[in-house]
Every structure is written in structure tokens, then in C-alpha cells.
At1g61320/AtMIF1 LRR domain-containing protein (Acer saccharum), 274 residues
Amino acid sequence: MGNDLAFNNLDPTSAYDRKPIKRFLKLVPKFINFVDASLSRFSDLNLCMQKFKLMICVIVDIQRMSSVLEKWIRSAVECGVKELDFHAKTDTEVAAVIYTLPQILFSAESMNTIKLRGCKLELPSKNIIRLHSLKSLTLKEVCIQEETIQKLTGGQCPLLEDLSLRECWGFKRIYITEAHKLKTIKIRAPVELGTISIHAPSLQLFKLGYSGLQGPIAIDMVGCPNLAVLKLSCVTFTHQEFHRLISNFPLLEFLDLNVCDILERISISSNTLM
């Protein structure tokens, strides 16, 4: 496996029978000891970790597991991990709250890739972010506030190139500024999202889709003159709003519209659109 660490504990919640869960709970201590030993080996040998992947089903009290998960993530950060892939699956019948990632994550200066799923991401108490190497941020089913999105895509993550928000919640607006190197943005939006404002002069691809019916949305992308690919799905706006949007993209090469029913007509004049 080299300098990668990957752990995936068994998922007993696929069946509603509680017998597998009881058997699973007996194995949890062994799983914890195994991860502890693996991380300790990296620390003891002063090894630099390339990737830390953890997929864990949290079916016990999250508060009891939080200290264990924080210890593991902290150990990975202290080993200079480059890529973090973390997926916490919660049994909502047992756990009423979602796991909140530790603030040490925002101090991972060597980390260039972050993939998170099924957790909550909150800004550190002093709003200080040191993700100076971060190039790719992928969030799925993550609870995150609009201020956190703005901070992560702003000047405190100057190298960020790829952003993906899929089925996340906790925000009604997205403001992205000072994202000078951001090249791709992919959003599978909650129905509550009503405002998107993006200033990213290097942006080349923007993909926006909704998982259900949503009200009118205001999209401001005047600061994205180099956009080449635009994909919209289940987005509600009039043809005037649509034409106003694409007029910002003189270099647009590819346009994909899917289930944008309110559009009455489309008239496009472009030398670059394929």
C-alpha cells in the first residue's frame, strides 16, 4: 500500500435486522486498535503519509466516537497527509446528530485533496485556515454554512482548482470571490439555494443541477470570462435571465441544458460554441 492508509469498517446498517449490528459492535474495539497501530507506525517511523482514507459507519453514540475520529485525523495531519478521503455513515435510527470534523483539518498545510461525505464542516473558532496546498475539495452530503464555503474558496486556499458540492446543505447562498486559480465548479444543489455569485477568472467548467423543484435563482458570473463548459440541470429561470447569464462567456464552447422547462426560446450567436 506504500504510504497510503485505507480503512473501511463493515456496514451493518444495510439490513434492518439488529443482529448484525450487535455482532458489529463487538468488532469495533478490534477495528479501533488496528487503525491506532497503523497510524502509530507512521508516526514512530516519521513517515510522510500520501493518503488517508477512512469509511466508517457510526452506529454508536457519535459523541463517544468523536474523540477516536479526531485522534485519527490529527495523526494523519501530523504525518503530513496529502489526501484525505473521509466518509462517515450514520444510522439515523440510532444517532440523532451528525459528526463534526475536528478543527485540526484546517491546519493541514500539506494537504492537496480533501474528500468528505456524511459529516459537518465548521470554521475554526478564529476563522484561520492554513490549507495553503489545497487544490481539490469534494463534499458530498456535508452540512456546511455559506461563510465556510466562502472562506474555503477565497484567498485562504490560494491554490484551489476544483470544487464539488453534491447534496450538501446548510446554506442558501454561494459567494465565491478571490478564487483566482479555480478551474471547475460542480454543484448538485439543495432546493433552498437561491443565489450564486462567482468571481473566478480562470474558471473553465461550471455544472449546476438541482435534485428537485426549486424557485427562482439569481446567478451572477460576470467575473468568469474564460468559462468554456456550462451544464445546467433542473434550473429555473426565464429566457431573459438565461441570455443574460451566457452573455458573460465569450469563450463558451459547450452548453448542456437538461430539464430547464421554463425557457421559452434560445437564441445564441457564438463563434466558439460547438
The mean pLDDT is 85. The chain has two domains: 1-111, 135-274. Residues 135-274 form one domain.
